[in-house]
Amino acid sequence: MSETMSQEQLEAVMGLIINAGNAKSDAMEAIQAAKTGDFALAQEKLTAADQALVEAHHSQTGLLTEEASGNPMTITLLAVHSQDHLMTSLTFNDMAKEVVELYQRLSNE
């Protein structure tokens, strides 16, 4: 087994990190927009976060497909970090949707 990731694996891991990070940033911007009452922008940012998570999942699916095809990846701290980043972003995105909804509900009262 190789001690390093292939170039394709590294690109997939970096895709996970970048897209998960973008999703988390967009979700945070959605909360900030909702806080100021700009619910159209908040929804736009939540949509962007969802799209970034789809892209992250594509990277993850590529890695899983490679593994299932008999091409296992060397587990590195970077690979573990990418999975952690994705899971954190998924959770944050779900919570951001709830926070935006709460701000919107409060603004209608």
UniProtKB/TrEMBL annotation:
The chain residues annotated with the modification Phosphohistidine are 81
Query: Which SUPFAM superfamilies does the UniProt record give?
Result: Enzyme IIa from lactose specific PTS, IIa-lac (SSF46973)
List keywords of the entry alphabetically: Phosphotransferase system, Sugar transport, Transferase, Transport
Q: Which Pfam families match?
A: PTS_IIA (PF02255)
UniProt cross-references to InterPro entries, sorted A to Z: PTS_IIA_lac/cel, PTS_IIA_lac/cel_sf
PROSITE patterns, per the entry = PTS_EIIA_TYPE_3 (PS51095)
What's the protein called, per UniProt? PTS lactose/cellobiose transporter subunit IIA
Species for this entry: Enterococcus viikkiensis
